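Reviewers of the previous submission asked for a worked example of the structure-prediction workflow described in the proposal, so we include one complete record here. The input consisted solely of the amino acid sequence. No template or homolog information was supplied to the procedure at any stage.
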Amino acid sequence: MKEIVSFGIKIHPLRKHDFLAIIDNGIKNKKQLIQSGINAASVVELKHLPSLEVAYNNCDLINIDGMSMVWALRFFGFRIPERVACPDLAEGLMELAEKNGYGIYLFGAKEEILLSALQNIKSNYPRIKISGYRNGYFSEDDEGSIVNMINQSKADILFLGLPSPLKEMFVEKHKHSINSYYILGVGGFFDILSGSITRAPLWMQNTGFEWFYRFIQEPKRLLIRYLIGNIKFIWLVISEKTHFKK
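From that input alone, the workflow returned the following structure tokens.
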């Protein structure tokens, strides 16, 4: 499997159909695979959290989740075929799950968001098997029982709709106890599924302006993240480019 290393982590520059084939094979062979997406915000975050960098490098698959990462990696000289956003990958996985009878467990988001997301999933994928679900509000004392709930559901696929770095740290801590064959951190995907947040038009996704579309929807929450985060990411790109020249 093709792999590159940048910003201190391994990254897999594959197309969506390549990831789906690898995941399908892993589930059929009962081999656990853990996947996370990497974007500008997560690069900035992992540079301040060594434990997050470790969690990323312990994943089996890392997809390029943001256009800014695509551009940065191409700037470094890597051949990047396409962006594979986590929502697009998750949509493909639900199609795969419905086709092959794989059970899915949804963990994350507010209860009302999660219930709306489940309703829309069942409308769009009427034959899909929902093994279980739980909202994303919990304490450290709840984690053991949550893992037990996931395992008792016998879900093949686990979607973690938790914010970063919580989702990466949860998986890193419990991966040896979770029995699901495939685990993917999907962030705010349940909000999209519920209809409470809409994704940017395709032209904005493809030109790297999806962040601005999200900012318009949640300006108070995202102002500092994007204003400071984007500046930090540009600085990290410049520093990484200098590293490649050495």
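The CA atoms of residues 108 and 161 lie 4 Å apart. We consider this example representative of the routine output the project will generate in years two and three.
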